[in-house]
Amino acid sequence: MAKLVYEIVPHDEGWAYRLNGAYSERFSSHDEALEAARIVVKEMQIADEPVRIAYQDEKGHWHSEISDGADRPDVEIVDVYAGTGDVLSCESGPR
Questions:
Q1: How many CB atoms lie within 10 A of CB 77?
Q2: 3-state secondary structure of 1
Q3: Dihedral sign (CA 77, 86, 89, 55)
Q4: Residue 75 burial by Cβ neighbours in a 10 Å radius (0-12, 13-18, 19+)
Q5: Rounded to an integer, what distance in angstroms lies between the CA atom of residue 73 and that of residue 89?
Q6: Which of 77, 10, 3 is nearest to 40 (CA)?
Q7: Comparing C-alpha atoms, which of 36, 31, 30 is closest to residue 19?
Q8: Read out DSSP for 21-75?
Q9: Could you read off the pLDDT of 26-59 as tens digits, one per residue?
C-alpha cells in the first residue's frame, strides 16, 4: 500500500501543503494550510467505485488492471512548524 506524506511549509510569503515537491495553492496562515491538508486527507479516505486502470512502469511497459476502489493509501501530515514539531498521522483505509 502506498504511503503519502504531506508537509505544511512556508510558501510564497504564506503557507502551503506539499507532496513530493509539489505545492498546493498559497494560504494566508499556517492554520489554513493545515486545515486544507486535513480536508485532502479525509477525501482520500473515501472508497471509490471499481475502475480499470492503465499505467506505465519504470521500464516503459504498459499494464492494465482493475482497481477495486477500496485500497486507500496511508497518509501522514508532517507539521514541523506547529511549534512542537508534531507529526500528525492520519492512516486511511477502506471505509
A1: 20
A2: coil
A3: positive
A4: buried
A5: 12
A6: 77
A7: 36
A8: TEE---BSSHHHHHHHHHHHHHHHTS----EEEEEE-TTS-EEEEEE-S--PPEE
A9: 999 999 999 999 999 998 888 888 889 899 999 9
